[in-house]
Predict the structure.
Amino acid sequence: MPIYQVIIKAIKDDIAAGTLRPGQALPTEAEMCTIHQASRLTVRRALEVLREEDVIYTVRAEGSYVGPRDAPQIREPWEFEKIASEFADRIKRGDLKPDEVLPSQSELIEQYGVAKKTARAAMALLRDQGWVYTVPTIGTFVASRDKWPTES
């Protein structure tokens, strides 16, 4: 049996066994290459067949998920989301006060051992959510309480 078909069978078996549930993220292509000792091209072929059969769907720049498309997505948070969540929790607890400066990008990189892109993404997410604001060339600060997102 060709390797791409072995991968397809393994994924379908995991879905049938409940190991992979609707909406759950599949391992990354790189992880599947390691798991199945296959090339990226082989893994992509398997994923393409699974997409054609509506077993999975792919969100560009995010990953592939078990179908159906309307199932709530289940995935581990990315590193930038974990960092942003940690800062949001610190702000909610009052550890960080409005207008208090947050660590610089280089401090975040050193503190969390992440790439510049990850540190930037964490701060961008906090800005988008309303927890912080940035003054160019000065720094990023905790937003005033009235700007914070409302808890649902």
Summary: The first strand starts at residue 56 and ends at 59. Residues 3-66 form a domain with the Arc Repressor Mutant, subunit A fold (CATH 1.10.10.10).
